[in-house]
């Protein structure tokens, strides 16, 4: 039976111990997170072109900037847009929009609109993500932690007036819709003393792990301590003077059917939400597959 235990968690990262699973299962979970968990991202950008006058100072600004439109659109597209799966629809599933032609889709249930109105100054000024304003629900503002993401630089007389339209999509269509980074898993390992006498060579170096950390059978199975042991072993392993004498007196052994799975999100959703959505997507896929089988047989 599959069991999971959260080893560490922050808003945007999770480290989990999975038991009773195999690599194929975890890889499908990994791929689902990368490619299938829905996420909002900016898909269209409308720039207001022309010359604008600051009414107070009489200063003139022109919508002109160093980056090309495509580069600028790409930078905005990669921003983490807060995603609340229960409150929004894909445009082609939105009750109000699904029957419309693609160009005309977009309502408060399937689209988020942001605006920006920034002007440059002498010597150049970085335009950052916190300068974007959302039209509507304040929850959808770019999270404060990501407000300092630089988008472009505007110089004296330059201005950027633009609207941005974010929609929900999947990572398999474009990387901007992928909510995760660094999704990885590896076998859980235990430390094992193979030769007690020679193992002293490591403990005598006074690093992190001591002989007392191992149980009577010479096994170390505390996950955090195994991580420390992995570092310690670099002092007696390949490429060190002690390698030949130490000769694998302590080794790390894979634990069967147990894996450590870890990932981070880009801030568009919490790590926990991302995991829940991935399980939901996977369950939905297998249910559809079972229905197909039932019909075919
Ligand atoms: Zn809609």
TrEMBL record:
It comes from the Archaea. It is found in: Cytoplasm. It catalyses: RNA(n) + a ribonucleoside 5'-triphosphate = RNA(n+1) + diphosphate. Its EC number is 2.7.7.6. Residues 13-292 form the DNA-directed RNA polymerase RpoA/D/Rpb3-type domain. The keyword Cytoplasm applies. InterPro entries: DNA-dir_RNA_pol_RpoA/D/Rpb3 (IPR011263), RBP11-like (IPR036603), RNAP_Rpo3/Rpb3/RPAC1 (IPR022842), RNApol_insert_sf (IPR036643), Rpo3/RPB3_RNA_Pol_subunit (IPR050518). The keyword Transferase applies. SUPFAM superfamilies: Insert subdomain of RNA polymerase alpha subunit (SSF56553), RBP11-like subunits of RNA polymerase (SSF55257). GO terms for molecular function: DNA binding; DNA-directed RNA polymerase activity; protein dimerization activity. One of its GO terms (cellular component) is cytoplasm. Its main location: cytoplasm. SMART domains: RPOLD. GO terms for biological process: DNA-templated transcription. Keywords: Cytoplasm, DNA-directed RNA polymerase, Nucleotidyltransferase, Transcription, Transferase. Belongs to the archaeal Rpo3/eukaryotic RPB3 RNA polymerase subunit family. NCBIfam families: PRK00783.1 (NF001988). DNA-dependent RNA polymerase (RNAP) catalyzes the transcription of DNA into RNA using the four ribonucleoside triphosphates as substrates. Part of the RNA polymerase complex. This is DNA-directed RNA polymerase subunit Rpo3. The gene is rpoD.
């Amino acid at each position: 039976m599959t069991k999971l235990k959260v080893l560490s968690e922050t808003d945007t990262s999770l480290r989990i111990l999975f038991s009773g699973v195999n690599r194929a299962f975890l890889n499908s979970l990994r791929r689902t997170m990368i490619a299938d968990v829905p996420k909002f991202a900016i898909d269209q950008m409308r720039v207001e072109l022309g010359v604008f006058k600051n009414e107070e100072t009489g200063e003139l600004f022109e919508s002109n900037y160093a980056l090309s439109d495509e580069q600028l659109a790409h930078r905005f597209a990669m921003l983490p847009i807060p995603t609340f799966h229960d409150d929004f629809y894909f445009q082609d599933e939105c009750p109000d929009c699904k029957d419309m032609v693609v160009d005309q889709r977009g309502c408060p249930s399937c689209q988020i609109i942001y605006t920006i109105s920034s002007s440059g100054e002498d010597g150049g000024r970085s335009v950052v993500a916190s300068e974007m304003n959302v039209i509507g629900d304040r929850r959808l503002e770019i999270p404060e932690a990501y407000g300092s993401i630089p988008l472009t630089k505007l110089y004296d007389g330059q201005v950027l007036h633009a609207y941005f339209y974010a929609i929900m999509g999947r990572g398999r269509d474009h990387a901007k819709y992928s909510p995760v980074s660094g999704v990885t898993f590896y076998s859980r390992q235990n430390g094992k003393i193979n030769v007690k006498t020679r193992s002293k060579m490591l403990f005598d170096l006074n690093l992190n792990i001591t002989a007392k950390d191992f149980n009577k059978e010479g096994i170390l199975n505390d996950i955090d301590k195994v991580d420390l042991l992995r570092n310690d072993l670099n002092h007696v392993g390949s490429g060190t003077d002690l390698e030949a004498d130490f000769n694998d007196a302590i080794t790390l052994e894979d634990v069967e059917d147990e894996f450590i799975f870890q990932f981070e999100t880009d801030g568009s959703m919490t790590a926990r939400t991302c995991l829940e959505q991935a399980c939901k997507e996977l369950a939905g896929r297998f249910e559809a597959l079972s229905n197909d089988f039932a019909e075919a047989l």
